[in-house]
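Changelog note: in this version the structure field was regenerated for every chain. One regenerated record is shown below for reference.
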Amino acid sequence: MLTLHGLTILAGDGGEMADPATDIRWCTHRVGSLPSEPGAGNPIAIVRGEQTETGIAIEHIFGYDGRVRCRFRVEADGSAVTAWATPEVSDRDIFSLLAEPVMRTILLQRDMLSFHAAALAKNGRAILIMAAKGAGKSTLSWALQRQGWQLLADDLVRTEKMVGNWSAFAGHRDTKLTPGAASALGYGADSLLPRFDDIGPAVSAALFDKVVVAPLGPPPPATAVPLAAILFLTPRDPNRSSPLMHRIGPIAGIRLLVEHATPDPVAPGSAPPLKIQREIGHIASGVPLAKLTLPDRLDLLSHAATSLEEGLGGLADQWTN
């Protein structure tokens, strides 16, 4: 039994799986081969919906070189996941795919609000960091961990209002860095695991070239952590030597939150469901929001993390005054 995003998952390899206390049943089948997907591109990353009697079941299909290596099916209510994987796919890769791309679908199927973000906690309060690719979300997350922050989730965060506070749940916690960033932070090229064990030839590997850094500190709390702030990273500024943070209001925040909310896997450009839209409006009004610009220098990350902590205190004061 494992827990991700506040949901208990019962994992097995087939046969009867039943437990009334389980939120999700996850069954994996090892197979010699899987049906091909002609014209799928390289690498293969397909999401497909299938209408069933109870709603739309979602399939995630992964592979490269014309061969499907792994396939997941999420039932319409998000209560069960079935995976099929060929021998090349490691257990670590299967879990990594379940924990992020497939879990995004599960949360959406269960009408749970989630974001593409990193979540970190300190002194019983959490922050979310949202950013476009390359803005520095993972490197900032790692710098904050070195300052004593606890990583709750690296790339996918579920949020919910609990006892009057918007809170973040713990999810998949491996920090993913580019080899260059890992080297600049003091890690040897051969000391870290690749993002995936089975990355395929160079044309595929170039898209998955990140390495995995295990989280620092103790395991995350079993319960959700109240949010102190949500930060939106802007492009890094080569002319800055320290971070710049300024508060934004709920209206501007709603647009940015929608941008980073988990999209419909089959129709990614569509508007979020009404329930999710309402929750985004509430979280924008109930949690301090700010834009953050980092210096474009990895050697200043430690200083940036320290300055950010100081700025967060001021942000909370601005919001409540």
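Spot check on this record: The first strand starts at residue 2 and ends at 4. The chain has two domains: 2-109, 114-174+215-320.
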